[in-house]
Amino acid sequence: MVDQNVGGRDRLVRALLAVVLTLVAATTLRNGKRKTGLLALVGALGLGFNATTCFCGLNEALGIDTTTDE
Question: Is residue 3 part of a domain?
Fold first, then answer.
């Protein structure tokens, strides 16, 4: 099992940003802006993954752990 390094407010912010980016992706894809929509979708998937698994590879590489933050 992978150690968790995302928690608290960091996790909440990532989840909210994932929702916002999903809405941006849907809107831009509907308007025909494929590159912007796909980039927003990839960002939403990444942030959603971070929020649900409580793990971020970049945090690990930088030695950041927000699981103990209040």
Answer: no
Where in the sequence is the domain holding 37, given as residue range(s)?
A: 11-62
CA atoms within 13 A on the CB side of 69: 12
pLDDT (tens digit per residue) in 52-66: 999 999 999 999 999
Q: What is the pTM of this model?
A: 0.87
CB 6 within 8 A of CB 55: yes
With a cut of 70, say whether residue 24 has pLDDT above it. Answer: yes
Nearest to 5 by CA among 46, 70, 58: 58
Instruction: Count structural domains, the chain.
Output: 1
